[in-house]
Specification:
mainly beta; seven-stranded mixed sheet; four-stranded antiparallel sheet; 11 strands; 46% strand
Length: 125
Amino acid sequence: QVQLVESGGGLVQAGASLRLSCAASGRTFSSYIMGWFRQAPGKEREFVAAITSSGGTTAYADSLKGRFTISRDNAKNTVYLQMNSLKPEDTAVYYCAADGPKTYISRTSRSYDYWGQGTQVTVSS
């Protein structure tokens, strides 16, 4: 199976930036759709972003309004989430997930087969 390990979270002030990383095991990473989800206390896990195996297609939650960017480096078996202009409402545990090999991006958490342990992002006001 695939193992995913997130890193890069932390405590920042509103307006700051963070880049999250997700390192994946195995040699089949390049065939997987990769996604980021987040879950705040008392809320459902919500879709953040996803990217196809080649990186040619991305999808984002409408509410992010261009502040977040997902990318991947298949040679390093790593997917990234660049988060800019962070707001307190971005505070959540951020999870990396794998959904491949598949053709189309899904925005629902149940579609993803493998999950990391999550990394905490806290944005103070």
